[in-house]
What does this fold into?
Amino acid sequence: MVTITVDGKRIETEDGALLIEVLLANGINIPHFCYHPALGKDGNCRMCMVEIEGSKRPQIACDTPTKEGMVIRTKGESIERVKRSILELELINHPIDCPICDQAGECSLQNYYMDVGLYESRLSTPKTRGQKHVDIGANVVLDQERCVLCTRCVRFTTNITKTKELGVLNRTDHSVITTFPGKPLSNPYAMNVVDLCPVGALTSKDFRFHKRVWFLQPDEAICNGCSKGCSLFVDHHKAKYENDSIFRYRPRFNDKVNGYFICDAGRLSYKQENINRESVAQIRGQKSEYEYATGKLLRLLKRYHSKMLFLLSPSLSLEEMVKVRQLANKYGANVSGYDVNEYDENFGDDYLKCNDLSTNRRGFNLLGIDEKKETLDEQSKNVELVVLFGRDDIQTIKNYENIESKVIISATMPKTDVLCDLYLPILTHMSREGSFINIDGYLQFSKAQVETALETQSLTKVIADIVEDDIFTCKDIWDKELSTIIKDISFESIKKDSCKMSML
It folds into this structure.
């Protein structure tokens, strides 16, 4: 360990640590474009200049290792003048289109510009022009005039995805980011370049011109696209006279699970989430009031007592699984977690995508819920009512077409050609809290609670009403049930940190 001094403040850090990382870790705002924790240093933007005692000229913090006794200044007339000059160079050919730029409100260049106050241009020659709104593939639109050539996107496709679709073409002030001829941006993680871009040069075709970012409310959640359970932000907004809608997912840093990135499939899955939130109760294919449908469920459970089979989705939260198990105990139902439809052999890769498309299969193991086919075959004997919890798969319903009654309790409305006695919608993944264990055994908590305009309830609330108790919140279920199973983690700790990590 060594001790350095930054703007008069003594900081202890590792010998040889990258100076910019030390500054950022200690809350010292240092402007930068090209540096990114996942991509490392590049040293081309020069925005992170600092003064170091003993050096003849300012140094870039992203390529300076720390050593004992260093005295660093990030503020002062001299270094501010250097940063102002570098920023002016970045702005020389930049278009004045902040009012129509999707990046406005979360743009690094815009923020640095407002800090410095370079409100008058000294440029006397025409600006160098580049191509605008270029579709480079994979839902990404390029505006070459806005680019500051930080090369984050180039390094991402070179070092992370290793697909190498992007590069820098031409020289001097004619240099532009572009794709290689005949090779559009086309990899499963391509849209991460939109998040990496510090300005508005790379924008999402899917999100483009849909909503200003300052209107969006970000919630912390986990992706339910596969068993990796990547951490993300759910950006949603409820406009006047409109329902609360999700506009995008963004990756949320989690060094144990997904780092700084998410796959494009998970990123775009918010669309299905919006559709699911419009589901309404149905009795034999006809729309029904939610309260009446819930009463119908209770009557079916009482009618077929001890002759029921509960089929659970491996994407239910731990809290939901606990409540379903409680319901099964009350009405003598068999419980199975067998589900072959949650696998896709063509989906997974060696990075963030898994063939197991469920969100919480490890929860079955923790709670002792059997998912063997042999057990299911035995449990299916003498069954007169099948209830699917969190599942809407058509094939499973068809497998039980000879069963007298069938019920689907899921966020996804079943197809119109599938006839079941009852469909009861429940809150979607992003509309209720819950705990999940990913494929690597890490416990995470999803905080997202996107508002729904319908009378739909959470699964835990529906079951609590049926079994006539008042235990339906995540905290209550943790205190009553899960705290006896997971003894080393408290609910308060996962609620405070939605990425609470513990191998289970």
Observations:
- The mean pLDDT is 92.
- DSSP finds 15 helices and 22 strands in the chain.
